[in-house]
Design brief:
By secondary structure, the chain is of the alpha/beta class. Helices cover 34% and strands 21% of the residues. It has a 7-stranded mixed beta sheet, with helices on both faces. The chain is globular. The relative contact order is 0.18. The mean pLDDT is 91. The protein binds guanosine-5'-diphosphate (GDP). Guanosine-5'-diphosphate is lined by residues 30, 32-38, 52-54, 56, 78, 142-143, 145-146, 180-182.
Amino acid sequence: MKLRSVELSATVGHLSQLPTDGLPEIALAGRSNVGKSSLLNKLLNRRNLARVSNSPGKTRTLNFYRVNDLLYLVDLPGYGFAKRSPEERKQWGALVNGYVTDRESLKGIVQIVDSRHDPTADDLEMVRWLAYGDRPYLIVASKTDKLSNNQMNKQLPRAHRSIAEAAERTLEDTRIQPFSAVTGRGREDVWRWIGDTTHAGR
Ligand code: GDP
């Protein structure tokens, strides 16, 4: 994807504020601190467009990044942040569920997991939900630069197996895309998937 224009064009805290222009949307989901903002910045070639923070769980809005006036990348608030109050969890659930369940222009979901660890219970619940639904999804394993080749050869197949099991798919039918926001590994592959999924061209 050749980037001509990128802007944060909407921060949505309530479903009534969703964009109405009908452009295709790709949402990014993942546990807090998984590297979602870094992935977004890397995709968009921006250093600080999406907030990268060491205090996870801050973002509670759906952030719509408009790309080339062709599509939106939608940053979903991170899940699995233990310090959230029940009230905050409820709010998160209503906003995110309402958006991902009913949104017609949402064409696909990029689900990010941390390549260094086994997928968490929250990650696997998300995978089950994605596999159960009709929308295309891509699982991305972040922070691969933090692993040696040796560690990666052990850890990625483990994650692959548990994700395939949660999705009730064969390993062959379960794709995991390695990614690094530091080296740019996987960036082109993720863009290719986004382009194919939104039919927005490249
Ligand atoms: P978010 O909460 O999911 O948006 O996660 P962030 O993008 O804020 O990243 C959380 C932490 O992981 C930050 O300290 C990032 O610098 C770091 N991080 C994110 N992606 C990578 C990566 O690909 N490689 C390395 N080495 N660190 C990363």
